[in-house]
Amino acid sequence: MLFLKGNKQDDEFNEAIELLVNQHASVFAVTDKELSQTNLMEHEIETGDAEPIRQKARPIPLATRVELRRILNDLQERRVIEPSKSSWASPIVLVQKKDGTLRL
User: Fold this and answer.
1) pTM of the full predicted structure?
2) InterPro entries, alphabetically (predicted)?
3) In sequence order, what DSSP letters do the residues of 4-35 get, joined into one string?
4) Would you kindly state where each structural domain of the chain is located, as residue ranges?
5) Which tens digit of pLDDT belongs to each residue from 44-61?
6) CB under 8 Å to 96, separation ≥6 — which residues?
7) DSSP 8-state code for residue 54
8) Which among 31, 38, 29, 97 has a CA at the least distance from the CA of 67?
9) Quick one: which H or E segment has residue 96?
10) Could you report the per-residue pLDDT of 17-42, keeping only the tens digit for each?
11) Degrees, nearest 5: CA angle 63-67-71
12) Burial of 53 per CB tally in 10 Å (0-12, 13-18, 19+)
């Protein structure tokens, strides 16, 4: 968890945040497997008149593609992500964790 350091106000803020998180622990995902979806609300990002930004995909090593497909299928089955044909796009970033698994 992120905590601020430095002065008394930071300590009070940290205590308030910790209390809030503990009171509502059931709505926070601690692991990737706990991520899910909700239909309680929708979120839109207003972009105004901004031109869409579409970045090219980064190359994915062949050895990683099977695991990436598994991760994406799992997230899609749990409705965390969905297919999109948006004019706004950023590339997938894969990071290998210390235990050798991949983080998306």
Assistant:
1) 0.66
2) DNA/RNA_pol_sf, Retrovirus_Pol_polyprotein
3) --SSHHHHHHHHHHHHHHHHTGGGS-SSGGG-
4) 1-28, 55-104
5) 889 999 999 999 989 999
6) 102, 103
7) B
8) 97
9) strand 95-96
10) 889 988 998 888 878 788 877 788 88
11) 155
12) exposed
Token pair for 104: 């998306």
Tokens of 42: 């929708």
Bridge-based pairing of strands 102-103 and 95-96 is antiparallel
Q: What angle do CA 22, 95, 100 make, to 5 degrees?
A: 90
Sign (positive or negative) of CA dihedral 15, 37, 84, 56: positive
| Burial of 80 (C-beta count, 10 Å sphere; 0-12/13-18/19+) | middle
Residues in the chain: 104
Residue for token pair 């205590």: 15
- Tokens at residue 21, please? 């998180």
What span, in angstroms and rounded, lies between the C-alpha atoms of 82 and 75? 8
Given a contact cutoff of 8 angstroms between Cβ atoms, the answer to whether 104 and 66 are in contact is no
